Please model this.
Amino acid sequence: MKNFLKYREIWLLAGIVALIGLISTRFPGFADPANLRQVFNDTSILMILALGQMAVILTRSIDLSMASNLCFTGMVVAMLNAAHPAIPIPVLIVVALLVGLVLGAINGFLVWRLNIPSIVVTLGTLTIYRGATFVVSGGAWVNADQMSPDFINFQRAAFLGLPMLSWIAIIVIALFFLVMTRTQIGRSIYAIGVNPTASVYAGIDVGRTKFIVFCISGMIGGLAGYLWISRYVIASVEVANGYELNIIAACVIGGISIAGGIGSVGGAVLGALFLGIISNALPVINISPFWQMAISGSAIILAVVLNARGERRQGRIILRKAEAA
Amino acid sequence: MSRRIFKRTFSGPDTDMDTTAQRKAETERPEPSGPFQSAAPRLTLSGISKSFPGVRALHNVSLSLYPGQVTALIGENGAGKSTLVKVMTGIYQPDSGEISIDGQATTLPSAHAAFGHGITAIHQETVLFDDLSVAENIFLGHAPRTRLGTIDWRTMRKNAREVLETMRAGHIDADTRLKDLGIANKHLVAVARAMSIDARIVIMDEPTAALSMKEIEELFLLIEFLKSEGKAVLFISHKFDEIYRIADRYTVFRDGEMVGEGLLKGTGQNEIVRMMVGRNVDHIFPQREPKIGAQVLSVSGLSHPTEFDDIGFELRKGEILGFYGLVGAGRSEVMQAIAGITRTSRGAISLDGKTIAPKSAADSIEAGIVYVPEERGKQGVVIGLPIFQNVSLPSLKRTSKSGVLRLAEEFSLARSYTERLDLRASSLSQDVGTLSGGNQQKVVIAKWLATAPKVIILDEPTKGIDIGSKAAVHGFMAELVAQGLSVIMVSSELPEILGMSDRVVVMREGRIAATYDNKGLDAETLVRTAAGIAA
Model:
C-alpha cells in the first residue's frame, strides 16, 4: 500500500511537471524558478486548507464549513486590527487559531456527541458561520486603508528568499507530515478511516478522534482566515464564498479517498499545487476561465477513476494470494 | 387455547373441529392428513453439491417437501442450511444434482426463476421495504396496472386487503408503512406476499428468532393456515420445542451432508441430537497437560437490559474456558461487555482480585483483557495499513512517548510477535490486505498478544479458515495457556469446544444454562443443554 501510494503521488508529480512543460511551450517564463516560487506562494493558502480537510476526510468525514470559518475568523481579526492597530501580528495569529479552533470544536462536538453525520453538521455551520460574519460586521467591509501596515505586510516580508506566507505553508506541511506519520493521533486517524470497527476493538476512541480532527481543520480555517484577508486586503461576508469546493477538489486530485483512510500529506499538497498551476497559468496563456473550470473538473474525475482502479487492483492481489495459500 | 387466539385461527379444512379435538390434534400429531395429503413431493432436491473455494458447503444432499406438510431442517451452525436455502431460491447454482418440482426436472438459474416456480423465502429479518406501504410490499413487482400502464392503486389496495383477510390478518391496514409494524406483523405481510404470488413452496429461515412467545403462537397459526392451503413449508429452526410443535417431517444436515430424514412422529429428540452431532474425527487437537492455577478473572451477576442476564463464571490461570451455545445465545455480547465495548447494567468483573469497570476497549486492554472478535475482516485487521502498524495498533501507548510514535519500538514489537506466530510475509511494511486469510488471522492474534494480556478472549477463532490454519490456531492456543495466559474461547463448533476446553460454559437465551468440566463430556449433552432439552 505504501509503495502504491508513492506510485500514485509520483504520477501526480509527473502530471504537474508535464503541465508546467506544456505551459512553458506557450509561455517560456513559466518554468522560471522565480515564477514557480510565485505559484507556490499563491497556492499556499489552498495547500494549508487542503491539509486540514485531508485530516477530516481520512476519518470518513468532511468539513464543508472551512471557507465560512475562514471568512468569519478573517473578519474578526480584521476588525480587531482596525480597532486596535497596536496588537502585534503574532497575537492576532494566535487569536485566529483560537477562533478557528472554537468553530471547529463546535463541528466536532456535534459530530462526536450528537452523532450527526459530518456532512449535515458542516452544511449547517457553513451557513451559520457566514451568517455570523454578517452579524459581527453588520454587513460592513473592512478595507485596506483600515488595516495596519504590519497586518498587510507580515506575510509579504521576505525571509531567506521566500515570503513569510510560503514559510507558513512549509511549516504547516512539515507539522502535518510529522503528525500524520509520527504520532498516535495520526495513526488513529488512518486506522479509523480504514476500519472504524476494528479501531474500536483496538481501544481507539473514534468519536474523540473525529472531534480532534475537526479542531485541527478549524484551526487551519482560522489561520487561513488571517492569511487570506491580509493577502487580498479586504474582509467581507463574501470572502471565499464557495471555496470549500476548491479545498475538497485539491484533496480528491491529491488522491485522498472520500471513503476515508487513504491519502497523504504529499498528495494533498500536490493536489493543491495542480489547481494552483492551472489557475495561475491558464490566464497568461489566454485560455478562458471556463476552460479552467473544465480542466479542474476533468482532473477531479480522472483522479477518482485512477484511485478507484488502484483500489480494485489491490483487491485482485488479495484474491490471488488467497487462492495460492 | 384461549378464545382470543382461537378467534384468529385460520379457516381451513380442519377448523370444524372443536377446540378440544384441535388441542388433541396438536399434541398427538397424527399422520399428516387432509385434502392435500399425497405421496408425491412438491419439490425434490437430489444429489445437490455445492463448493466454495476451500469449503465444501453441501455434499450430495437431498430434501423433499410435500404439499400441506411442514418439513423441519435441522443442523448445527455451518451444517449447510443457509446454502441450501440459497440453492432453492436461485441465488446459488449447485455444482451438481437435480431439482424437480411436481416431478418435473427443472433448474433455478436465478432468483426470478425460483419466484416464477412459486418458491418464496421468509427470513429471520424480513427482506421487505420499510418505507413502502403494506399493499406495496405485497404487490411489489407484480402490481396490478391500469390501461395506461400505471399502477392501479385502488385494485392493489383492494387485493391486499383481500389477501390479508383470507389470512385472518385483516387487522393490518394495507396503507400502513411497514416500519410501523412489529416483526410478527411483518412476517404476516411476507406471507401475504407469498400468497399473492401464489407461492407453493414457502421457506421459513429461523422465523421465530426475534419473536415473543405470543407472536410465535400466531406464527404457528399462520403456518397451519399455509398447510391447510396446501403449501409445502420448509421450517428452519434451532429450537426443538418449535420443531415438534409445528413440523411433520424432519431432515437433519451435518457438515454439509444429509444424515437423516423421516416423520417426526415416533422420532425422539435424542435420536435427532445424535444425528446432528455424530461425526468422524477429522481433526486432531493438540495434546496438552493443563496446569490450572489460581483464579484470574471472576464475573458475577453481569447483566444487560436486553442481551444477557446474571452471568457468572470464573477463569483460572492456564485454563481454556469454552463458551458454547446457539447463535444468538448472547455469548459474544457477554464477551464484548467484559472487553469494555458494550456497557452492562449490573454485575461485577474482577481481574486478579481487583474489581475493574471497563468503560472502553482501551480500559480493558490496559487491565489485561483483550477480545479478538469474530469477523476478521470487519473487526480485526485494518487492511490498508502495513503489518507492523496493525500489530502495534492497540499497543500505541507503549510504543510511543507523549503521543509521538517510536517506529523502532513498533517494529521490534511487531517482529517479535509475528515471528513467534511464524507469519509468512516478505516484509512487515507489507499491507495486511495482501496476506492470505490464515496469515491475516495470525496478524490479528499477534496484535492482541503484543498488548501482553492476562486474559485473551477468542470469539470463533477458526471460523472460515482452512484446516491447516485451524490446527495452527489450536496449537497456538495450547501454547498460550502453557505460558500461563488464560483463554476464553467462544465457539459454535462442537469438536473445537470438546477438543480444546478445560471447562465448558453453555449459554441459552442470554443466560448460563450449565457449566461442565470437560471430562467425559459428550456432544449430545452440550447440544441438549444449549437447546433446552431435558435429558
Summary: Chain B touches chain A at residues 53, 339, 341, 360-362, 364-366, 371, 373, 378-386, 389, 393-394, 396-397, 400, 403-405, 407, 429, 431, 433-439, 447, 466 (CB under 8 Å).
